[in-house]
Amino acid sequence: QVQLAESGGGFVQAGGSLRLSCIVSGRFFSINDMGWYRQAPGKQRELVASITTGGLTNHAESVRGRFTISRDNAKKTVYLQMNSLKPDDTAVYYCNAAVEVGTIWAPRERTYWGQGTQVTVSS
Question: Of 56, 78, 93, 113, which residue is most buried, by most CB within 10 angstroms?
Answer without folding.
Answer: 78
